[in-house]
Amino acid sequence: NGNAGFQQVLERLESDPVCQRLSLKSFLILPFQRITRLKLLLQNILKRTCPGSEEEVQATQAYDALEKLIKDCNENVQRMKSTEELIYLSQKIEFECKIFPLISQSRRLVKCGELTALDFNNLSPKWKVTTRPIYLHLFNDCLLLSRPKE
């Protein structure tokens, strides 16, 4: 997004009839779609092979290898999404002092959301309740509380 030259080239390429007006994202997703189609193809091959034959053994080995590949791909996609979330969050959150690095290979965001903090002021004759929003960010290794800048 920050590189205007890249954006212009990308728009020109995506509008080119050779690319069938498909976005870059669709070309990046295409290999994953092919892998899942291969899995379906191997399942059909396994249904049609004779039990105990050499073909069945080879098809089973190929199927197992493909399942491992798909699992690895999914794990890597999840890891990248988690890293992107941490990068986005680190850009939004401003620490008064840096206690620990927010972005880490082992850290991932589990859940986040807004809560309302209630402050009771019992110094006045009437109990006065004030509210302010706070945010909880639950990571796999810590809990971070934040509040919007005033």
UniProtKB/TrEMBL annotation:
Segments forming domain DH: 1-76
GO molecular function term, any single one: guanyl-nucleotide exchange factor activity
PANTHER family, per the entry: DH DOMAIN-CONTAINING PROTEIN-RELATED, GUANINE NUCLEOTIDE EXCHANGE FACTOR
GO BP terms: intracellular signal transduction
Organism: Loxia curvirostra (Red crossbill)
GO cellular component: cytoplasm; nucleus
Name of the molecule in the record: ARHG5 factor
One Pfam family here: RhoGEF
Gene3D superfamilies, alphabetized: Dbl homology (DH) domain, Pleckstrin-homology domain (PH domain)/Phosphotyrosine-binding domain (PTB)
PROSITE patterns documented for this protein: DH_1, DH_2
